[in-house]
# Entry
Amino acid sequence: MTKPFKTLDDMRDVAGKRVLVREDLNVPLADGAVSDDTRLRATIPTVTELADRGAIVLILAHFGRPKGQRHPDMSLALLTRPYSLLLGRPVRFIDDCAGEDAQAAVATLQPGDIAILENTRFHRGEEKNDPELVRAMAALGDLYVNDAFSAAHRAHASTEGLAHVLPSFAGRSMEAELDALEKALGSPEHPVAAVVGGAKVSTKLDVLKHLVERVDHLIIGGGMANTFLAARGVNVGKSLCEHDLASTADAIMAAADRAGCTVHLPYDVVVAREFKANPPTRTVNVHEVSGDEMILDVGPAAVEALGDVLKNCRTLVWNGPLGAFEISPFDIATVALARTAAALTGDGSLVSVAGGGDTVAALNQAGVAASFTFVSTAGGAFLEWMEGKELPGVVALRG
Ligand code: ADP
Ligand code: MG
# Structure
């Protein structure tokens, strides 16, 4: 199948070319060490492939929020050594991503060399997508590769502008992410189920509105289920609940009805009086929550029924945990449904795609992240994609 964007397979005569590669190197540091190298590892396929094909690999990335100024503690020089160790190859550092000094430094590189260029956000023009900065960056390279899906929801010089002035290609991680998302919501196999959980309806309104038009089953869990239950007249006690969104919740349920999407709300729940680890709990029907209790997880009967829904689906897209999973024992429903989804994926009956910061943490806690078809660590970009938004960095790659 031909893709709507060019990939590294479409790149000819790479040897000796200077390739500007936008990566996501925005990793957490603790005491100067990289505390989670997931993002660094995601860059390896593209960077090694290009270097092996004889390109001069020039990595562009942002780091932190320096707001257009040089901050030594947000210099990508801090990552050069850990990155080099991870790659198992030498990595040079060039202390600007535009300008004459950077050009001179790039001119000393040989085919197969890899260099990290300084934090793009040290330039004010980066976040403004300033054409002058775009031209200055473009002067360093012959080709442009965008491999940072997680930054693609922003139209910045290094994520969007460059695609308009240099021949552009999606890197391997970007390609894998776009392929997975296309399979999950673009042209999925039906029936499609979506799990939307997490704390609040207000942060995911656009996600819900988009999904009811596209999926066959919308499974609502987490704190946001309380808002829907309350809108249906259920007394949710002291649960996290946005009572002011009752009419919005009604409108979403009505839209789902019209679109032929079945909305699943929990009918049994796990409640507690305190929001702390291992408090006394009760498992009750949603109509039996007392005024001083909080709903903190979906109950076992509902989870079993949801597992049966997944058994009849071909595609699953998941954002947001079903309960307050950080606190024991309110991770039980999330872990159980995640394991069911992972088993169905293993059997080949389900394509499962998940994303979101807490969702990824919950899937890791369940030990099933690797058993899903695809887990996106893109955060904001993943959510915007679930809202049906066009991501500027992706649109620009289509040319
Ligand atoms: P993601 O980061 O995957 O997009 P969210 O940030 O939207 O997910 O939601 C995760 C948060 O929702 C977690 O902190 C979790 O504790 C909270 N949460 C889930 N269910 C409940 C609930 N019933 N009551 C209170 N908080 C909840
Ligand atoms: Mg979150």
